[in-house]
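Sample pair:
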Amino acid sequence: METLETGLVEARQSFSIELEKLRDALKRSEDRYDASEKRALLEIDRERMAAAKAQKELAQVRQMNADLVERQRKEYASFQRELGDVRQNLGAAEGGLVKMRELVDLQTTRLEAMHEQLAHRAAEAALLRREVEHRDERIKAVEQLLQETTQAAGARGSSVTPKGRKRKASSEGLATSASVVRSVRRPRE
């Protein structure tokens, strides 16, 4: 019996040692589990915070995108209005340009006609000047002839000739002078 008791004591001791080992292993497992659980909770918390941050950033990006789209839509509408105004102004300017070109063409035509008239008048003036110069020369010639005739008549009057004859010569000289003056005053044809 003693062997039995010894065997029982040994079995109890061995069981106690095994139990103690199992308790230590269980405690280590629980500690590892607790540590793993804490790590997992921390990681879940970090992921939750990262997800919340990402959601917030996504909301901000969506809002910025919506604002940008709205701003671009307004700018596009504004540019369309400005483009319409510019096109309208361009159309008006082109219409004005066409009118100005027509006016310039008309003025150019008038100016050319005036140049032609001026050239024609200048030619007429030159002809008239030549005619006046020619008449002046003829008048001078007539005056000189008249002077010579008068001097000749005066010289004849001092010579011994009958008075009737003297008068006749004077009236002949005057008639000749008058016909020369009439021919000078008559316009050239």
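The CA atoms of residues 14 and 95 lie 117 Å apart.
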